Amino acid sequence: MEDSRLISTQEISQHNSPEDCWLVIDDGVWDCTSFINDHPGGPALILRYAGRDATKEYSEIHTPSTVRNSLSPECFKGNLDRSTIDSTWLQSPTPSNPAQAVPDGEKPPLHTVINLYDFEDISRRTSSPKTYAFTSTASTDCWTRDQNIAMLRRIWFRPRVLRDVKAVDPASEILGVRTRMPVFICPTGLTKMMHPGAEKAMGRAAEGEGIAQIISTNSSFPAEEILNEAPGVPLMFQLYVNKERKKTEELLAKLNTLNVRAIFLTVDAAGRGKRESDERLRVDEVNPVTGKKGGGLTKIAGSAFDQGVTWDDIKWIRSLTKLPLILKGIMTASDAKLAMEHKVDGVMLSNHGGRNLDFTPPSILILLEMHRQCPEIFDQMEVYIDGGFRRGVDILKALCLGAKAVGLGRPFLFALNYGEEGVRKAVDILREEMESAMKLLGITDLSQVHPGLVNTSDVDHLVPSTLDHPYAKWRPKARL
Amino acid sequence: MEDSRLISTQEISQHNSPEDCWLVIDDGVWDCTSFINDHPGGPALILRYAGRDATKEYSEIHTPSTVRNSLSPECFKGNLDRSTIDSTWLQSPTPSNPAQAVPDGEKPPLHTVINLYDFEDISRRTSSPKTYAFTSTASTDCWTRDQNIAMLRRIWFRPRVLRDVKAVDPASEILGVRTRMPVFICPTGLTKMMHPGAEKAMGRAAEGEGIAQIISTNSSFPAEEILNEAPGVPLMFQLYVNKERKKTEELLAKLNTLNVRAIFLTVDAAGRGKRESDERLRVDEVNPVTGKKGGGLTKIAGSAFDQGVTWDDIKWIRSLTKLPLILKGIMTASDAKLAMEHKVDGVMLSNHGGRNLDFTPPSILILLEMHRQCPEIFDQMEVYIDGGFRRGVDILKALCLGAKAVGLGRPFLFALNYGEEGVRKAVDILREEMESAMKLLGITDLSQVHPGLVNTSDVDHLVPSTLDHPYAKWRPKARL
Amino acid sequence: MEDSRLISTQEISQHNSPEDCWLVIDDGVWDCTSFINDHPGGPALILRYAGRDATKEYSEIHTPSTVRNSLSPECFKGNLDRSTIDSTWLQSPTPSNPAQAVPDGEKPPLHTVINLYDFEDISRRTSSPKTYAFTSTASTDCWTRDQNIAMLRRIWFRPRVLRDVKAVDPASEILGVRTRMPVFICPTGLTKMMHPGAEKAMGRAAEGEGIAQIISTNSSFPAEEILNEAPGVPLMFQLYVNKERKKTEELLAKLNTLNVRAIFLTVDAAGRGKRESDERLRVDEVNPVTGKKGGGLTKIAGSAFDQGVTWDDIKWIRSLTKLPLILKGIMTASDAKLAMEHKVDGVMLSNHGGRNLDFTPPSILILLEMHRQCPEIFDQMEVYIDGGFRRGVDILKALCLGAKAVGLGRPFLFALNYGEEGVRKAVDILREEMESAMKLLGITDLSQVHPGLVNTSDVDHLVPSTLDHPYAKWRPKARL
Amino acid sequence: MEDSRLISTQEISQHNSPEDCWLVIDDGVWDCTSFINDHPGGPALILRYAGRDATKEYSEIHTPSTVRNSLSPECFKGNLDRSTIDSTWLQSPTPSNPAQAVPDGEKPPLHTVINLYDFEDISRRTSSPKTYAFTSTASTDCWTRDQNIAMLRRIWFRPRVLRDVKAVDPASEILGVRTRMPVFICPTGLTKMMHPGAEKAMGRAAEGEGIAQIISTNSSFPAEEILNEAPGVPLMFQLYVNKERKKTEELLAKLNTLNVRAIFLTVDAAGRGKRESDERLRVDEVNPVTGKKGGGLTKIAGSAFDQGVTWDDIKWIRSLTKLPLILKGIMTASDAKLAMEHKVDGVMLSNHGGRNLDFTPPSILILLEMHRQCPEIFDQMEVYIDGGFRRGVDILKALCLGAKAVGLGRPFLFALNYGEEGVRKAVDILREEMESAMKLLGITDLSQVHPGLVNTSDVDHLVPSTLDHPYAKWRPKARL
């Protein structure tokens, strides 16, 4: 290369974009444009030096021959004319600093968030104590909340290799509605505490990212307002039956007029869980029943909701709407079978995020119990699940085990701390994690998932294979 | 609502009670009286603003339409007359502060206690070191004490949904005596160290809350004094046989004249456990046998109690009293079967709170062992249990597995730190936890419990299915 | 009692001994002599107030009627003559202080030690770093050392109740030699580092307490000197075969002339474990082979011992001595069977305290493996065990599973930090723990132990039932 | 010895070498030359006192008779002539200090490193943050990375005793190439970040120590330069197929001309894992696709490598080279069987160090899965493994279970922090650990390993015995 032409720093500096990117390495000038996206270390590292001298960082990592072996000879443009070096040339490029420490109580920039645990961590540090307590709390010892996550970690993959996975797509359908990913936002109460945009911001995010959204009977905004904001979102409605059944009839009548896609009837909340981190912040409130301070939220928290809803009421709800009906909060294979007998359109396996009854089964184990006791259900209705999902790999595990889609509640609420953009970021992270995991698992679309791709050996012994207790033959006579 | 009448702050302020409760929201005046108990966030939050302006807190959580959708139109009373706003109106309502930090060594107000662990924590911080050591201690490595709790946490629920659970009642019977909850206070020694009221305060609490009480042969007050204080308490008596059998005969003769309901003969204390946190506080005491300081409490702690009581002595006790006889401290299915053969009225599965022999089985596993080896017993006599119970859910698990009632020792002792009121609070917490859990489990009274409502898969492998060791065929010949 | 006589403080003060003990309670004077040993709280608490006023401490714990109910009427001596109270009377008795904090690096008084863990803790704080490192160290990751203890904790009792356990005795025999407890001191090297008395002090302690002692080929003192000091100790000898076999022949010839009871041939040390906490203290020593500093103790630590000893050599050793021969360091049922075929007198299940090969099986599991694979051995030869034993309950578990006696190495070495008295104290603690546990387990002598008294369910799945790997059918062809 | 001759300090001082080593003990002068290597405490301790007075350290450990019993009488040379003691004599020998504390950020001397964990610890403290992050990172929650190590620890030995293990040799063959130990250096990217010598230094170390080396397609130096430096190293090549297949053809053509022994085709990297500790350091880099900062390295990290390589491409690779072909990254027995059907020369069980898909099976479990499902493979092709190996015992476990050789990646990279000498030290440590473990396991060469020498009971339940999920019968119909 000794007879190559000399190139001035001024000329080199102009080739400083992704479309036209020159680098100086050991006084050689290289056109790296075609290589940017092939760089094993990623394009950003090259672009940081676009139109500049990259010798120092290059040499820390590569041997001099690497650039010659990686680029074709015509990419070599000549040698640096060292006589043209000036103070401008000598300035360092913007250094790549790790994310700056953020002052206490302030949210770090959204681009520094790299997974869904970050959102929870940031909310813990920056939301008001009562917002964080209400969002993170669960019933009594929080066993179910924590085991939702822990049990997912005890299920592993059995990945297959040498499949063509150049193109991967996690698109799916929920009740016939196409979504870009089999993920939905779970209904939550007091959403506005986290961010004034509440379900509106979530709806815009879901619409933009192509996932579904379920809103609560207790949503901060009514369905029609959310649909005004985000007309394209696949919106579903979580229903609590009101003690005054007439109110529920009116509500369903209204929903029938809106572009709502399904009704998720909550069946696991026929009582209120004792949520202690929340309760502890409110011990000084006066109990209006007793006139005294302290405790007892579980009992006194009034509820407009009917605790007497039974299987027979499904017929009544069916008479009020033609929308698909899903039972949310199924926790045993036995009740999944009853749901099938009652011809609902789907079940959502859920323990209410561990917020109601502690020591209910971790969600993913309910899915396994269905495989043990009633695998035929998977072909007859759609099965959804929520509880503990934080990662693309978590979602993929549930899909392999027959779930049609996966819901996330708290994580999207923590992401809502950043408004719509936070929720979009959360979806984006999940999609990236899923796509990476699908490739590495050896599949390209979700028609290819099946139980043989996961190893559940570490939890199989925890899954009941019978309706009754396996060895306790005793059943009590009437005991009163 | 523009043509509604204007209402003065003076008028609004008068509607400030649970019976008559107006709120101002966004300048609208609403009569919320009918809604107070339906408020999903609980009535207290509404009552804090009774007769006041709630706009600020309302807006943090709700959208403007919520109030219109939740209340009927006639609840709208008009608009706030802003010209009547004065300094009184502008005063904030009493803020809802989280419980104040309490100075070191002082008990926090009782109303801030929300579960039974709180009582232990407060005792650790506020009782004298020797009181706390004596109460919390257990034998050697405290394995059994800690596993009593841990094993309960390894048993889960299998809750059923869509049952009518509007009305729930945990009432039960113990030996034919009706109680409001299947719970009793276990006998404890040195009770007075915790509180001068000792068993008297406990008896009044048990009477008031409708649960049973067992007192120790070593109780701080004799049975007759407790019954004087709390004549309605279902009182039972824990018996140690005295080395001088005549004393036991006299004791039973006296009990026969009192309103005592049963005798619980302790069978797991034919020796004294080595309780190290207690022993460590006493190493400087001079051992009167050796004349030296240190150690050996286990051996030297004199005992008036007969270590030679055997199955044959049951006949003798039966000859002394007609009261029901329960064996307290059964730790194997084999001994439960012997108890049945000896026709006692019940057994109490107990390892003495782990205070005697460390590595005795966690109580709940003994219950499971009975299901494996002798399920017929549950229909022939009453089975009680104690050891590690701290939560309503714990109690419910044992009931599902066949226990007729559950005892708590240390937790009520720690609650006694607050006297009678503390013990009542403890019972109240347990009842609230039980009622909430029953609803969420899908049952309304205790005749509905059965083993199929719990999942014991995580501990089933720990439960012996035979009297002998399952694969160790060897039995020693005489070895001396 | 109003008409009782008044007694002066001077008179009361004279009844201040275990043989004649008066107490003042609420102005009543009581002769408690007959009750001292029956006091549930132990005699020391009474004796502290002998001849004094005990009202204050009594009232904290007892109700006024307790003393009347516990003592016969003739024990009441009269009332305190309050006019005789003077400054002497008002002085407090010596307070019962908890053990004083001890200055850094100083050993606390021996009487404050209450279990064998205390000895280790004290050695860690007061021995020289190299002494503690050498004693506590084990091979590489110390898995086996730690699991020796952990696996013992995973075995539980199945205690039986209502047995007459007034008199309990842990006496046993080892190879026909009567001992007061089935416990022996294991051989250790560099014993003198811990205390100059070394094996002499241990021998005196073993003699005094009636247990056996095994000394190492590497003992700090030769067998004859130890036997001079402690002629009554049941002394056994741990043998390493010397590379120069003649030296071993001379050694055995000498032992044949002494009152040595058995030879324990070590078979698990055909190499040296890599003991890192020890090695780390010596990295600056120059390796004389390489002339460099650092590492490699495992390889370079010269050994006089023959790494080529095989099963065939047992015949040779038998030709040199008539003493019983035990193989120390058996770690599989397969080798136990070979030992039986070679007609040795016993095996000692041991992994050298985890000091040689890490990930060798925890000792107690080897005992279980023998029950699975060769239970007949227990009737044909004596089986000993060491590794992880720290408590009376540990020893009892091994005895239930067929061990004839249990060895402890490190714990006695840590106790030797206090010389002979420390070792005696350690034995005393173990005996007290064993006696307490035997009573509570429902047995009175060691002929009554059997596997049905323990529950090994938590570890059974870890015990191989075959010589070969249970499902790995492959065996390599020659691989080189 | 009283009539022995007196020897001056000047004379004694001259016997101060391994070949001629005198010591003074209690005024006696002993020639210890013949005993140096037999000293149970190692030769270094003796040599430190060669030609000097060792009484003080000797007495701390030994009794006066030890030296007489250990040495033959002719080793006694006489008594110290105390009149010749001078200041030179009284100087202490160089003290044996434990390794000095090293200033923050500086590497401690290499001779203080005693195991492979030390190298990682030192790199964490002394490498640049990005070097350490890149090297230590793994995918998302790092479960697989950590479980690679944890599962190895759950496999134990079943050692056999009384075998002749005087001579032990861990030599082996890899693909017919003799190596001194069945260990190879795994391929790594960005190797130069750790040390400028990169693969050249590793190659020299591998050559010197007699192990194999695999270099990456992304190696810092090309194969020919490494072979120039270390012509004797058994060099193997890890292949990523380039998107432009022609480049791969050229690469293999070049390799065919070099002394490369095998091609390891990576099959577990058809996507890029999300490595968060790495990603977190780069969140401020601008994503050239989106033009925004943050995240998404997983997706945007361009790759020159073909994600569409399938089983059919094996034929194509075979057409380009005659070198043995091994598939690196097999994670199921099913794919191992496919590999055998495609007649490759071997498989390497690997999950890419947990860097690609989290929750892939820990490597050692894949080996066990092959025993369950396809043990015949072990006799038909060579099976290698990497992932979590840090100790000689780890390697030995894998060999017992059928692995022909074991690879280490991160540990050698951390050792490279010290250049060639560091890598040699790492190999030396592993060899010493293996030799020690082989002796203690009762084997002398690697033809003697077999599965019966390990106990895998603690993990057996985690190993799938079927291709499909064992009880989930459901397989999805097409789901889109």
UniProtKB/TrEMBL annotation, chains A, B, C, D:
Compositionally biased spans, kind Polar residues: 87-99
InterPro entries documented for this protein: Aldolase_TIM (IPR013785), Cyt_B5-like_heme/steroid-bd (IPR001199), Cyt_B5-like_heme/steroid_sf (IPR036400), Cyt_B5_heme-BS (IPR018506), FMN-dep_DH (IPR000262), FMN_HAD (IPR037396), L-MDH/L-LDH_FMN-bd (IPR037458)
Reported cofactor(s): FMN; heme b
Highest taxon above the source species: Eukaryota
Gene3D superfamilies for this protein: Aldolase class I, Cytochrome b5-like heme/steroid binding domain
Major location (coarse): mitochondrion
Molecular function terms, GO-annotated: heme binding; L-lactate dehydrogenase (cytochrome) activity; metal ion binding
Residue ranges of the TM segments: none
Subcellular location(s) per record: Mitochondrion intermembrane space
Reactions mediated catalytically: (S)-lactate + 2 Fe(III)-[cytochrome c] = 2 Fe(II)-[cytochrome c] + pyruvate + 2 H(+)
Keywords of this entry: Flavoprotein, FMN, Heme, Iron, Metal-binding, Mitochondrion, Oxidoreductase, Transit peptide, Transport
Quaternary structure note: Homotetramer.
Listed PANTHER family: CYTOCHROME B2, MITOCHONDRIAL-RELATED (PTHR10578:SF104), S -2-HYDROXY-ACID OXIDASE-RELATED (PTHR10578)
Protein name per Swiss-Prot or TrEMBL: L-lactate dehydrogenase (cytochrome)
